[in-house]
UniProtKB/TrEMBL annotation, chain A:
<protein>
    <submittedName>
        <fullName>Dipeptide ABC transporter ATP-binding protein</fullName>
    </submittedName>
</protein>
<dbReference type="Pfam" id="PF08352">
    <property type="entry name" value="oligo_HPY"/>
</dbReference>
<dbReference type="InterPro" id="IPR013563">
    <property type="entry name" value="Oligopep_ABC_C"/>
</dbReference>
<dbReference type="InterPro" id="IPR027417">
    <property type="entry name" value="P-loop_NTPase"/>
</dbReference>
<dbReference type="InterPro" id="IPR003439">
    <property type="entry name" value="ABC_transporter-like_ATP-bd"/>
</dbReference>
<keyword id="KW-0547">Nucleotide-binding</keyword>
<dbReference type="GO" id="GO:0015833">
    <property type="term" value="P:peptide transport"/>
</dbReference>
<keyword id="KW-0067">ATP-binding</keyword>
<feature type="domain" description="ABC transporter">
    <location>
        <begin position="6"/>
        <end position="257"/>
    </location>
</feature>
<dbReference type="GO" id="GO:0016887">
    <property type="term" value="F:ATP hydrolysis activity"/>
</dbReference>
<dbReference type="InterPro" id="IPR017871">
    <property type="entry name" value="ABC_transporter-like_CS"/>
</dbReference>
<comment type="similarity">
    <text>Belongs to the ABC transporter superfamily.</text>
</comment>
<dbReference type="InterPro" id="IPR003593">
    <property type="entry name" value="AAA+_ATPase"/>
</dbReference>
<keyword id="KW-0813">Transport</keyword>
<dbReference type="Pfam" id="PF00005">
    <property type="entry name" value="ABC_tran"/>
</dbReference>
<dbReference type="GO" id="GO:0005524">
    <property type="term" value="F:ATP binding"/>
</dbReference>
<dbReference type="GO" id="GO:0055085">
    <property type="term" value="P:transmembrane transport"/>
</dbReference>
Length: 366, 348
């Protein structure tokens, strides 16, 4: 097994909610609440989850764009949150980020040359001043842009091209880890494939490790070696890509996978669909015990009180990390015989959600 | 007011004008053109679009950003800002009557009772300063002349119909108090309030998470079956389309480049662009391989390439494609493609 380049242990990030006349703290938004994982050298770790599950906050914590409430990140043997000043700046060279929205993450007043070359201004010893223009042009060439466009401004490029600029900036300092926060979500399908291909090519050529944060499950599956599924600030399931997509054991993963519309009309009525009740509860007031129990069809009393740990649980073919008291493999992608289902699996294939119980209505409600 | 009175008033649809579809044909769009006159030049957003919509049918309009799919919807609804938009040519007939030449007042009365629309972004489509119940009830007050309390009662019923939990208690809540999925349900409630014959859903689930998307699509399908509405589903998501559509029209640079039955199209695309789109979705058996991306970029609508608009990105392109714009022609029973080499694409 390859060695770990980045190890996150028990990362927690709470954002205070202030209220009242004195603006005292009245609560916390528990954006990330105890997440641990390792990123191996040269691998791609996909992080999936719905909006509000804390996946972007996790990315920002790994970049130290946010200070954690508690927990640690060890990068290449160095405790990241213990570093200060120059040492931290040096560390940042090795971890870079590509943001989701190529329209707001590039400064409209700067030329592409300035944007991609800015890392060299901050870390002047990487490339000598004279060689910078050439270095930027090489980078543009590497990400498939015309090096002659170095003096153009972001608005002169399309969405896909801008994302390439963002990637060029991300790899300028030759980092070891690139955190990609929804890098293709804003792009059209045909352009999305181009950018995914580019990222895979760069990984092969530069030996990068990726943390690939996205909500598009099929893209994550394509690019990732391992996948972590997040729900309300916690990791619900973590394993090899095959484990997660082929033998998911956490009910949330199963529901998520079953909800993805498959681009094949012949599977229309054959595919099992688990329609979840209601919305994601507010992270300011997450459910007790297992955070998924309010929407889970398997939930029992135990789930309301005991927090299930993310530990190795059998998945039929082996075992992988799952945080469910009643972890059980279930095939999602292929059709399953209804008669094989246990009695508890009532919610399957249900189209009619009329009997909805009133459940928490998402963050907007609080 | 008694129920029978309500019914009587409803059946007489406030304008007195009645529309009856012939043989189930609700909507015919013929040679529609839309241009935007901007200071930088003329953007040709739609360049000759034709399609029909029947009762109970789901037509998906599939395309990437800038392909003209939303503009088509807005043209049908009559909510384009004119100017800058101009419709130089074309007809949109609803039950045989051309909406584009109809007097404004008559057309206004079709919006809601006859044709209605669900937008992508429910938060910016709902009015933030009025309760949602009031906004739904407005449909009944304006179009049916109901009084406030009756209209509100109907709004509660509709909210229950779109499965909003505790509808009675929440009828007075404001849009920001609902989650994204619930807001989209309210949009749907407004759209179906007056029992329209045609419902246009413009990217109804794009802003939503997958688990919520599944709920909303199931609801839309259910309502469509129940009311036998003609549904125009506008989306860029090939997965969503595969799950709900009967027919698909694929748009590129303001034209329909392929139209087919959903099963035929996914089994065997008849246009290189459709083929490229389908191939660019990551599939299981392609793990670790390059995705078959379509090279290049969608064209600038101010400078659409000569001939076939797709030719600079097309693997099949020959000289004829750069000179001659292919028409949308039948290439097999029930399916059309606008490509000079449709046969090769279809069978090669």
């Amino acid at each position: 097994m390859a060695e770990a380049i980045l190890t996150a242990t028990d990362l927690v990030k709470y954002y205070p909610i202030k209220g009242g006349v004195l603006r005292r703290k009245v609560g916390d938004v528990k954006a990330v609440d105890g997440v641990s994982f390792e990123l191996l050298k040269g691998e791609t770790l996909g992080i999936v989850g719905e909006s509000g599950c804390g996946k972007s906050t996790l990315g920002r914590l790994l970049m130290r764009l946010e200070e954690p409430t508690s927990g640690s990140v060890v990068f290449d043997g160095v405790d990241m949150y213990a570093q200060k000043g120059r040492a931290m700046r040096k560390l940042r060279r090795d971890i870079q980020i590509v943001f989701q929205d190529p329209y707001t993450s590039l400064n409209p007043r700067k030329t592409v040359g300035d944007i991609v070359g800015e890392p060299f201004d901050i870390h002047p010893d990487v490339v000598p001043r004279k060689g910078r223009r050439k270095a930027v042009q090489d980078l543009l060439d590497l990400v498939g842009l015309n090096p002659e466009h170095i003096n153009r401004y972001p608005h002169q490029f399309s969405g896909g091209q801008r994302q390439r600029i963002g990637i060029a900036r991300g790899i300028a300092l030759n980092p070891k880890v690139l955190i990609c926060d929804e890098p293709v979500s804003a792009l059209d399908v045909s352009v999305q494939a181009q950018v995914v291909n580019l990222m895979e090519k760069l990984q092969d050529e530069l030996g990068l490790s990726y943390i690939f944060i996205a909500h598009d499950l099929s893209v994550v599956r394509h690019i990732s070696d391992r996948v972590g599924v997040m729900y309300l600030g916690k990791m619900a399931e973590l394993g090899e890509e095959d484990d997660i997509y082929g033998r998911p054991t956490h009910p949330y993963t199963q529901a998520l996978l079953s909800a993805v519309p498959v681009p094949d009309p012949t599977l229309r009525d054959k595919k099992e669909q688990i329609v979840l009740k209601g919305d994601v509860p507010s992270p300011a007031n997450p459910p007790s015990g297992c955070r998924f129990h309010t929407r889970c069809w398997k939930a029992q009393d135990k789930c309301k009180t005991d927090i299930p740990l993310l530990e190795l649980r059998p998945d039929g073919a082996g075992e992988h990390l799952s945080a469910c008291h009643f972890a059980q493999p279930r095939e999602i992608i292929e059709t399953i015989d209804v008669s094989d289902l246990a009695d508890g699996d009532l919610d399957t294939g249900r189209r009619d959600t009329a009997s909805l119980e009133p459940v928490g209505d998402g963050p907007a409600d609080s | 007011m008694t129920t029978s009175e309500t019914m009587a008033r409803e059946s007489a649809k406030s304008s007195g004008q009645t529309y009856k579809p012939q043989d189930g044909l609700l909507l015919e769009v013929e040679d529609l053109h839309v241009e935007f006159h901007t200071p930088d030049g003329i953007a040709r957003a739609i360049n000759g679009v034709n399609f029909d919509l029947f009762e109970g049918q789901t037509l998906a309009i599939l395309g990437e950003s800038g392909s003209g799919k939303s503009v088509t919807a807005q043209a049908i609804m009559g909510i384009l800002d004119m100017p800058p938009a101009v419709i130089p040519k074309g007809q949109i007939r609803y039950c045989g009557q051309d909406l584009l030449t109809m007097p404004d007042e008559q057309r206004r009365r079709t919006r809601g009772p006859e044709i209605s629309m669900v937008f992508q972004d429910a938060l910016s489509s709902l009015n933030p300063v009025f309760p949602v119940g009031w906004q739904i009830a407005e449909m009944f007050r304006v179009h049916r002349g109901m009084n406030k309390s009756d209209a509100l009662e109907r709004a509660v019923k509709l909210m229950q119909r779109v499965q909003i939990p505790a509808a009675k208690e929440r009828v007075g809540a404001y849009p920001h108090q609902f989650s994204g999925g619930m807001r989209q349900r309210i949009m749907i409630a407004m759209a179906i309030a007056l029992d329209p014959a045609v419902l246009i859903a413009d990217e109804p689930t794009t802003a939503l998470d997958v688990t919520v998307q599944a709920q909303i699509m199931a609801l839309l399908q259910e309502l469509q079956e129940e009311r036998q509405m003609g549904l125009i589903l506008i989306t860029h998501d090939l997965g969503v389309v595969a799950n709900v559509a009967d027919k698909i029209a694929v748009m590129y640079a303001g034209r329909i480049v392929e139209r087919a039955d959903v099963y035929d199209l996914y089994r065997q695309p008849g246009h290189p662009y459709t083929k490229g789109l389908l191939e660019s979705i990551p599939r299981l058996d392609q793990k670790g391989q390059q995705l078959a991306a379509i090279g290049g970029l969608p064209p600038n609508l101010m400078r659409i390439p000569e001939g076939c608009a797709f030719n600079p990105r097309c693997k099949f392109a020959q000289d004829v494609c750069r000179e001659d714009r292919p028409a949308l022609l039948e290439v097999a029973p029930g399916r059309e493609s606008a490509c000079h080499f449709a046969e090769e694409v279809l069978h090669g």
